[in-house]
Amino acid sequence: MKKIFLAAVCGLFTAQLYAGQKLDFSSADFTKQLTALPVAAQAAAAKTPVSAPVKVKLGRYVQVSGYVNLRGNGWMPTNGGYTSITLSGWATFRDGTGMVTSNNTYINVPASMWIYPNQYVFQTVRPNVYVQLYKDGKMIGSTSMSGSISVSGWPGSSSYFSLSGSGYLSGSIYVEDAQ
């Protein structure tokens, strides 16, 4: 019984603080004061300031891709063997609408392989380049473009040979919508 009485007193005391009005326990209209507490509490709650609305910029991820031609020349050991060459080329990357685009981008990829005279060479390289992208002439950021490109060639009997190939590189970037 003590716990119930203590809980009731604490509840009234808390309600008095929350509502911002004094309760008169000796008054005959004590019960009317209790029914007025929720109304006073709502009035106090309504006075809290409302923060300004937050502006949210919406956006989306855009898939960007471009076609790349790679070409490289190298020297083969006299009777064939392991060698390394550098393949290079240029590409421009765009999204499907043509709104997001890059400048002309230089791509430089090392490749190592076993190569022998008069034997067809086929190699897959995986370029990974960072590209700056623009929308309406303004830079929106940079992203990594990657993919696989197959290069091939037919070295003759001389030690000089060349490889070439083409393929697509792709990536994605987050673009904010115009407000």
Structure description:
By secondary structure, this protein is α+β, with helices and mostly antiparallel strands. The chain has 2 domains: 2-46, no CATH class; 59-176. It is built from 2 helices and 9 strands. The strands form 3 sheets. A 4-stranded antiparallel β-sheet has the order 1-9-8-5, with no helix packed on it. Helix 1 packs across helix 2 (30-46). The model has no long low-confidence stretch (mean pLDDT 82).
Strand and helix layout:
Blueprint (H helix, E strand, L loop, with lengths): L1 H18 L10 H17 L12 E17 L5 E11 L8 E3 L2 E11 L5 E5 L2 E8 L2 E9 L2 E5 L6 E17 L3
Antiparallel strand pairs: 1-9, 2-4, 3-6, 5-8, 6-7, 8-9
Helix pairs in contact: 1-2
Question: Can you give me a brief rundown of this structure?
Answer:
It contains 2 helices and 9 strands. It is α+β, with helices and mostly antiparallel strands.
* Helix/sheet category: alpha+beta
Count of separate structural domains? 2
Gap from first CA to last CA: 64 Å
Describe the global form.
elongated
Question: In percent, how much strand structure appears in the residues?
Answer: over 45%
Task: Write out key terms for the chains shown.
alpha+beta, 179 residues, 4-stranded antiparallel sheet, 9 strands, 3-stranded antiparallel sheet
